[in-house]
Fold this sequence. Notes:
Blueprint: H1 16-36, H2 42-56, E1 60-62, E2 65-70, E3 73-79, E4 82-84, E5 88-93, H3 101-114, E6 118-123, E7 133-137, H4 139-145, E8 157-158
Amino acid sequence: MAYERRPPVPIEDLDPQLTNVSRQVIGFAIEIHKALGPGFDQGIYEKALTLELDKAGIKHRLHHAVPVKYHGQTVGEHKLGLFVDDRFVVEVMAVGREIDGLDRTRLRAQLRAADLELGLIINFGERRLKDGLVRVLNPDKLNAMRGGAPGGEDDYDDDRDA
Length: 162
């Protein structure tokens, strides 16, 4: 069975307040990357990003726990990388490789568990930060917001316009 990739969801389809805050986070990440460059551990970049969020007055929680449910029962919990503005997840990475499908799938699972529509992967390990920015969307949440049924759509991400 051949898989047909869906076109990316236009950023205009998301809540403008959500996209505004996510763009601010990306701007902070760019400034951090310009100042520090690649080469540090993930925790350094997370701390720098939280300092910028504090300075901007944007609410956030580092390693925020969300329950993971199966058939309505909690089967565990997962800690989100950085939970921003009670609206979206930022997964901070500091690895010398491209963001791959497994990274996207992992973040999409976190979005489903937390019932969030947007996540960002920011890989500070890239020489150019724009090569390490990916926007990942939760198709279940987007379909529910549009009045559709959850599930069935596997791949909502757009690494071209994080």
